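ok, trying the design again with the full structure, not the truncated one.
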């Protein structure tokens, strides 16, 4: 059986600590523009394209059309500004075990990539702040593809950029139900959930997966035991 050649990581909640800033920025921006949303539903959208999340709530309440496209754009602009300001001023905190896991993979010649529901400017800022911008073979944002998670397109784009042709040589890692759904939809050999984000074990276990891990520090042992 082919060995693993590429590991793809989500960003917020998977390789950097999620301190609630994303949900906070969503809540503030939506409320500012009079857009209603249930908290539980917003939580289920974690990991999705951020512009798709905003469009979902705006069109459900106000309908579609040019006038409401403008509202989507205004909410999204406020959301982006809030998060860019947060990460510029407060920096990022790597998830425990992330650096060691990256070193382990790199030493074995396993390529790495990121996928994220953030826009390109923000994902680049986060990776630069963490000192990881040159670490990955590909960094794919939701605006690089037609649809974000749970569609598998970001995973496929990461594979393309990293020169990987076979999904059976890929492990996809994330902290949300949408991460697991995307990995499953892509047919990745490893679909790994980590419990360092917002969602607990019981929620992640409801989605198709190969492994649910407490932290990224457990990933090398899984790859060594099952995928080499």
């Amino acid at each position: 059986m082919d060995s693993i050649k590429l590991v793809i990581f989500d960003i917020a909640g998977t390789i950097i600590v999620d301190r609630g800033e994303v949900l906070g920025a969503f809540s503030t921006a939506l409320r500012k523009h009079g857009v209603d949303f249930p908290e539980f539903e917003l939580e289920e959208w974690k990991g999705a394209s951020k512009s798709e999340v905003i469009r979902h709530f705006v069109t459900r309440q106000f309908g579609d059309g040019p006038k409401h496209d403008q509202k989507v754009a205004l909410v999204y602009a406020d959301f982006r500004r809030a998060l860019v300001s947060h990460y510029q001023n407060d920096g990022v905190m790597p998830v425990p075990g992330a650096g060691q896991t990256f070193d382990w993979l790199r030493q074995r010649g396993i390529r790495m990539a990121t996928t994220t529901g953030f826009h390109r400017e923000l994902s680049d800022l986060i990776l630069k702040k963490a000192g990881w911008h040159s670490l990955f073979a590909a960094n794919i944002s939701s605006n690089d593809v037609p649809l974000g998670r749970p569609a598998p397109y970001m995973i496929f784009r990461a594979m393309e950029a990293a020169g990987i042709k076979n999904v059976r040589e890929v492990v996809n890692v994330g902290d949300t139900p949408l991460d697991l759904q995307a990995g499953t939809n892509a047919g990745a050999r490893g679909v790994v959930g980590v419990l360092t984000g917002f969602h607990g074990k019981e929620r992640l276990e409801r989605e198709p997966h190969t492994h649910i891990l407490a932290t990224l520090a457990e990933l090398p042992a899984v790859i060594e035991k099952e995928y080499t």
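Keeping the full-length input from now on. The chain has a mean pLDDT of 94.
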